[in-house]
Amino acid sequence: MGHGGIEAVVAALQERLDTLTPAEETRREFLATYQRTTTAVARAVERGAFEDPDWVEAWDVVFADLYLKAFDAERAGGEGVSRPWRLAFDAPADLPPLRQVLLGINAHVNYDLPQALLAVIPVEQFDDPALLESRRRDHERIDGVLADRVAAEDAELATKSARTLLDRALRPLNQRASRRFLQESRRKVWHNTVELHHARLISPEAYAVRLAELELLSAAKIADLLAPGQVLLRLAVAGFGVVLPPPA
Question: 117: buried, middle or exposed (CB in 10 Å: 19+, 13-18, 0-12)?
């Protein structure tokens, strides 16, 4: 696969940025952040940062498609939009940009990402320990791409809202907190992917039950993201990810 896959994703995100209506302005921050991050992943693929760049690109396209489908479904009236995405799309207009971005990350990482991983790790690959470990390592390498983006995204968001003296003093701490919770949530994503895999081996019904659990857990996380106070520092302590419990 060439790099057209990720380039097409970047173009699709740009098309939606260009057509945002005034009523959709709260969606701009996550959409723009996601586009910049996707561009950074494409650069990492080009410079050989992954063990299997073709797999990473296929995964990135599937992953983005889950967001684009949710975005388009919300535009079309909201039919079939998951709870985490509905809460993100319905964010109050006066919510600070950082919080808007975090609502999108919650829906896309905690809820969408395990589904995207399953889509590009077929059942037989779970039976190949060496290959599965390679997939897990590439999954974790995305952390490096995201961590590199933290400071740049912080600066980008700073241009969108007035910074208090306290905010500026906390910036280095907030950046470290972001790196920490990204790593923590990625480990939990892998756990949830394995749990969903075990369910899909049983039956489509068993998978649907577990996915519904993940949807509820991800939606419940919104309360942490909207609570007053220094949200990034709180997430560094309490964690950003969600964990599927053992099946009932």
Answer: buried
Give residues with Cβ within 8 angstroms of 17, minimum separation 6: 28, 31, 32, 35
Q: What are the domain boundaries of the chain?
A: 4-238
pLDDT tens-place string over residues 176-217: 666 676 778 888 999 999 999 999 999 999 999 999 999 999
Burial class (CB in 10 A: 0-12, 13-18, 19+), 187: middle
| Angle between helices 129-158 and 28-46 in degrees, nearest 10 | 130
Q: Which two tokens stand for residue 115?
A: 């589904």
C-alpha to C-alpha distance for 198 and 19, rounded to whole angstroms: 40
pTM of the model: 0.86
Write down the H helix ranges in 19-164: 28-46, 53-75, 83-89, 97-105, 113-120, 123-126, 129-158
Q: Which contiguous run of DSSP H or E holds residue 52?
A: none
Residue 43, both tokens: 């650069």
Q: For 56-78, how does the pLDDT look when each residue is reduced to its tens digit (9 = 90+)?
A: 999 999 999 999 999 999 999 99
Angle value at C-alpha 154, between 150 and 159, nearest 5 degrees: 155
